[in-house]
Known about the structure:
This protein is α+β, with helices and mostly antiparallel strands and 80 residues long. Helices cover 31% and strands 34% of the residues. It contains two helices and five strands, in the order βββββαα. Strands 1-2-3-4-5 form a five-stranded antiparallel β-sheet, covered by helices on one side.
Amino acid sequence: MPTVLRIGRYRSFFYSNEGQEPPHIHIQSGDSEAKFWIQPIGLAANHGFRARDLNEIERLVRGHEAEFLEVWNEYFGDEP
């Protein structure tokens, strides 16, 4: 599971076997993890984050959307 970026207490990554899904990023902090679709940005799954945390994470995903998409495409190819 390649780490894409660390921002504060958040680690963003994807699992190496998820190339068949649309581009997305997992965000983890402690025991909590969320999955966000990259285009369009939206919450796909949440395991343990509070609403306030999810709002902060969504802002981070929006701010790094291009970077996340670039890394996804480099790793999995241009096809979702």
